[in-house]
Amino acid sequence: MKRKNILTTVTALAAVAWLSASAVMANEQPLTEKWAPSEWGPDDKAGSVNRTTPAMVLKAAKLVKRGKVATLGKVYQQDAPAFGSRGWRMTIPGMPSGGPFGPQELVYNDEYLATEIGQIGTQFDGPGHIGVITSKGMYFYNGRFLEDPDIGTYGLGPLGVEHVAQKGFVCRGVLLDATALRGGQLPIPVANSKDDPGIVTDADIEEMVRRQGIDPIEEGDCVFLYTGHGDIWHPSKWDTFDAAEKAKRVALFNSGEPGFGLSGCEYLAERKVILWGADSWGSEAVGPGFGGENPQPFECHIKMMTKRGIWNLENLDLSQLVADKAYEFLFAWSPLKMKGATGSPGNPIAMY
Questions:
Q1: 0.85 exceeded by pTM
Q2: 35 in any annotated domain
Q3: C-alpha distances in angstroms, 167 versus 11, 264, 341?
Q4: Looking at the domain assignment, is residue 312 inside a domain?
Q5: The CATH number of the domain where 129 resides is what?
């Protein structure tokens, strides 16, 4: 059999296998519950950032009272923790990469980067990142399917992060300090239960807001959770650790994480926040079987992003905000305008 025919046969068999499996495993909730069209219409590609109004921006700007700035991004480097097989490989070819030019002997350096650039380190999850298998195909935000003709391996078309980046985020930032609530760093959950101390529930959110003396969470807010788990990958001490200590910390960091439970995520969604995030690698609780309050892995990702278009920022450095007890601040950031990408790196800024 010719090579082309073999490849065609293998591809056809793989498609049949996927269709057979999906018929058994299909999640029909997006279809039966009519997750699409979104409240912003069938053509929307940006999601909850559409809620932002000039009045919200002006109100958030009034939170700058001390004249302080905190950058919330972590350093991108090769030995930092990463989910699964993801990695960051940056080299400076040539040293210098080019030159010399002219009588003043100008030289320059470039970097070459190999990475999952939208899903590494401090990362923004965009419309094309999380989907679910339905009987009609792989469903993503606002009723788009991975099998649609305008979506492909060289770009996700209407699911690309650039559609969110066109708007960007300027909002009231809210810090929820779960370590103050629990009396220390939250543990990795050991049970799929609201009672597990590593899972932050709707009641926990209300209690943190009350204790911190801030206004209730409301429409247009960006809400970030500090669990202490991010300090395993310490934002300022990482390069002081030797290779063995880093390896130990990477394993612990990636073994699970405290974070929002589904009830907490639903609470934020009901209050119409436009962005959620945490100091951990997934923002939501990851315990036994990758589940949180329920056994379903990454259920907050599904219900917040795929269902509602409320995007997520992971691996944030919230340490300065915690130290300053800056529980409310002006938050500003936008994903990079990478056409068709699943997400974006970045360095968000808090001003207070």
A1: yes
A2: yes
A3: 39, 26, 16
A4: yes
A5: 3.50.30.50
